[in-house]
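@channel sequence for tomorrow's demo:
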Amino acid sequence: MDRPSETLSRGPAAASRALVPSSQALAAPPLGGDPAEVKRWFDEAAEATQPVLDGTLASERGAAAAYARMAKSDNTRRAYRAAVRAWCAWCARHDLPALPAQGSDVAAFLAGERGRRLAPNTIELRRAAIRYLHRAARCPVPTDDVCVSETVAGIRRDAAHSGEIPRKKVAATATIVRRLLAPIGNDLRGLRDRALILVGFAGALRRSELAAIRADHLEATDRGIRLTLPQTKGEQTTAVTVPLPYGDTELCPVRALALWQEAAGISAGPVFRRIWLPPHQGPGAPPPLPRIGSAAITPQTVAQIIQVRAVAAGFKRRDLGGHSLKRGALTTGMECGVHPAKLKRLGRHKSFDVLGEYLEFGDLFEGHPLNGVL
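structure tokens (generated this afternoon):
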């Protein structure tokens, strides 16, 4: 059964409740104050609410600040808030000011986080959050001090020396997708999960893009479906159209999506929704029928669905995740000899370097450039 995950994106109803006059400007940052006050201030500073304009200069200044906060994605703001909470808790334990901070204190904090076995990438995220905290408060930024940069570089070198290599999720290639689909039934949850997997694979979609699909984003054509993504990681301000072509095999995303929408009665609103079983009414009562929610599933739920289906197909839970479908689509295309420019376009990457991060290469000796020469 799916478990809802907390997100910063709370839907139209919650968004309307969040509308407050933007003339109510953010309070002044608590410089040199209690770290707990800094945490509370940053939680408010990182919240992105739609500004209300009333024609006054104060409201327009407030709107500018609100739009600036919207420049960060929900995931980024959520990660920054968690990092700043950790930073403020550390400062409170050591009786140090969280804002403004000294570079030497930031370096000590990051070293302590490494002592808790945090990965270098997580430590870099902690550093970025502290940088953002100071910029939001218009304070000198301590994270660019030499001692901080050298500490982070040393952490990365130590991790590499210790053999800590970031493990990527397995690419869900066409072969693996077939394995994922094999045990899936034709109940409501099975129809939803099959459609989610195939749409994610055919469109090389991220988990956040899958979770955000709405019925009005889908345009049927004689060759398949044109999926409009209002916002992507690579295009924050421009909509992107992704083709989902008809297929001749069990991997066809169009037919899978149609079966799910028809069974769930979804013609408007979010396409992929939570499904749950109501409580049993007691002895002798018929088993409850599954219910379909009205809100979209979260990106975290997308990853959970893929992991649950991976375990059912014989994989380990940590083998596959939210990025597996995108990696699998691009890797399958590479193995089929598709030109890298087309793969870059399918993956919506701005550079070939980023594209390379998503490809999973199989036998390194197969097709070696010097085969037949050595």
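heads up for whoever presents: The CA atoms of residues 4 and 293 lie 11 Å apart.
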